[in-house]
Specification:
The protein is α/β, with parallel strands linked by helices. The protein has twelve helices and eight strands. The protein is elongated, with a radius of gyration of 24 Å. The chain binds NADPH dihydro-nicotinamide-adenine-dinucleotide phosphate.
Length: 295
């Protein structure tokens, strides 16, 4: 910290793996941090690094105008903060939750006279305070709060404000994580296929990475088609062909003695889209099947 860098004062509730990582970056940058954790012992190492340790959530909240919360889940926020005066506070919730939980917390905070921003952390604790790792946090809710505190919020990781709907940080967070799970499922299936064969996983690894990178074009392609609702122009891998190909994937799994449980749901979805009207949907790409997911 240079002499010209402003020194911020803030409170952090929650010193789990993520909270501790956040705390360390604020302390290392020379900011004045008050911490509270349900299990008090976790605050001791941070006290040695300069944190002020509050004996209760009420004391921690009273210490600063900016209160960052990083607890296990939404229920733990209620456990820590219900009944505590939040009048005039700026509450930034970095606890992972659903969009509805984010919106309900925003209403809860506003009823208590606080401004509120919800956050979704796209980083592991080791990526906090390490800009080169590329982690960042989605924020949504009060734009005024975000603008006021942006500089201090950007100390642990980059900040991306995604709108005043307090549910949208969680929605962005979960959309990205959900895509990641699908990718993990596909990678798991691929490795299962070669288990027991004379193909080393480490030899398949670079091929898989390269292929997944090449297929990443689907992200932007699907976005364009969902916007235009044109699922057929310029299609070079049509749904009828793809559905035939899914049979090959399922039979290969059978031959290799591998369960199809990770890939069957997506195969079923594509088949359902095609079966609804092969003449209409057979010429689409796979984007149109997304519409079947919406209940
Ligand atoms: P930890 O399990 O390490 O810590 C959980 C924290 O919540 C602890 O401070 C714990 O207190 C506290 N807590 C749990 N229940 C209660 C309760 N009823 N009342 C008060 N405090 C409670 O989790 P992380 O620090 O890793 O995660 C914190 C948040 O960050 C989560 O929402 C997580 O999804 C999110 N996150 C975590 C990432 C990660 O890789 N770790 C990545 C992205 C987001 P105590 O010490 O007393 O048990």
């Amino acid at each position: 910290m240079t002499d010209n860098t402003p020194r911020y004062s803030l409170t952090l509730l929650g010193l789990g793996d993520m909270g501790t990582a956040l705390a360390r970056t604020w302390l290392a940058a020379g900011h004045r941090l008050t911490v509270w954790n349900r299990t008090a012992a976790k605050a001791a190492p941070l006290a040695a690094e300069g944190a002020l340790v509050a004996a209760s959530p009420a004391e921690a909240v009273a210490a600063n105008g900016l209160v960052v919360v990083c607890l296990l889940d939404d229920a733990s926020i209620g456990s820590a903060l219900d009944g505590i005066d939040l009048t005039g506070k700026d509450v930034v919730n970095l606890t992972t939750g659903t969009p509805a939980e984010g919106r309900a917390r925003a209403a809860w905070a506003e009823e208590r006279g606080a401004r509120f921003v919800d956050g979704g952390i796209m980083a592991t604790p080791t990526m906090i305070g390490a800009p080169e790792a590329g982690g960042y946090v989605f924020y949504s809710g009060s734009r005024a709060l975000f603008d006021t505190h942006r500089a201090v919020l950007e100390v642990p990781a980059g900040a991306r404000f995604v709108g005043e709907d307090a549910g949208h940080a969680a929605l962005h967070d979960v959309a990205l994580l959900s895509a990641m799970w699908g990718m993990f499922a596909g990678i798991s299936h691929a490795y299962a296929l070669i288990e027991g064969e004379d193909i080393a996983p480490k030899d398949l690894a670079p091929l898989l990475s390269e292929w997944l990178g090449a297929m990443g074009f689907f992200v932007g392609n699907a976005a364009e088609r969902l916007t235009s609702r044109d699922f057929t122009s310029g299609v070079v891998s049509n749904l009828a062909m793809q559905v035939t190909g899914t049979g090959t994937m399922l039979r290969t799994a059978e031959e290799q003695g591998v369960s199809t449980e990770l890939i069957s749901p997506y195969v079923d979805l594509l088949r359902r889209r095609l079966a609804a009207d092969p003449d209409v949907y057979g010429g689409e790409d796979t984007t149109g099947a997304i519409l079947l997911l919406k209940r």
